[in-house]
Structures are given as structure tokens and as C-alpha cells.
User: What shape does this take?
Amino acid sequence: MTEAPAPVIGVLALQGDVREHLVALAASDAVARPVRRPEELAEVDGLVIPGGESTTISKLAVLFGVMEPLRARVRAGMPVYGTCAGMIMLADKILDPRSGQETVGGIDMIVRRNAFGRQNESFEAAVDVDGVAGDPVEGVFIRAPWVESVGAETEVLAEHAGHIVAVRQGNALATSFHPELTGDHRVHGLFVDMVRANRTAESL
Assistant: This one.
């Protein structure tokens, strides 16, 4: 029996720490590609939305014509993982959006932008994440959001200082923190496993 080919996972390469996600995905046995345009999005099995500035990512996604195709694929069940600004992009509602800011949606949650403070208040913390075996994940929080509340179908995977910092709803995963900056690829491994499982289910 031949082994299934590695899943192809894109990183939305409009702004933010794209290279670090590409490295983490490749280390987790995925084929990693930058994605900027609809035709590139159509070729991947899953997508990571990186950290950066959520307002800028939102505006560039519209400008590059990728926002609506991305929304459609997320609604259709494509696995997607958002870190920091990517978490904001996956929220169905932002508590304090900038003017004209749009989201992809996909997770029934309300997110507060910059909730853990400004750039100079960035910090690292050990976070126990459900679904990630072994020691806690070292989370890097940079102008990080937190989740104010979640809907009934959204699973809380981790909390820090009394606030929700990791969630999953179906094929959508989001963290407030940046695991791609630590060299610990277990959260990316969790996402790659989600993509593999979804691809298997679609082939049945």
C-alpha cells in the first residue's frame, strides 16, 4: 500500500511572519507554499493565516481578490489555522474592529484586538493546549488578541491568565500566540493532522 502524499498547505503571504510558518509546516511533513491569489488558494489542502496586522491583512486580501474565495473555501470545510492576527481574521465577530475591517470568519467567537497590550508588552508563557501531547507549548504573545466568548460549537483548547487563547471549531483552528517563532512545531503538527484527516474524509 502506497503512502498518501504529503498535504499541500498554503500560508497567506500578504503580510506578517510568512517564512516562519512555511518552515514550521515543512518540518511537520507538509508541502508548504505561499498563497497570494485565488488560483494559488485553489491548489492547497489547507491554509495558515499568519500574524501581522489584521486590518492590513484584511485590506490586502480584498485587494488581491482572495477574500471571497477564502471565505467560500472555509465555509466549505477547508482546514484553516490562524495565529494572532490570523485568529482575528477567523473570528465571526471582532469586539473593537477598525473602520472597514473585514474578517474571513469560520469560528463562532468574539475576539478583542491587542487585548494583551502593545508591542512593548509582548511576553512568552507556557500554555497547555488540548490536543498537543507532552510539555506545555511555549507561546509568544505579540500585541496578541484574546477570545472574549465562544459559541456552543467552538472548543476551547487553551487559556492563559483567565483568557481564552486557543480554540477550534471543526476544521478551523486559532491561537492568540505565535508557535512558529519558537522552534516547537507541535501546534503545526496538530494542524497538519487536521488537514490529513479532512483530505481522507473527502476521498471516501
About this structure: The radius of gyration is 16 Å. The chain has a mean pLDDT of 94. The first strand starts at residue 8 and ends at 12.
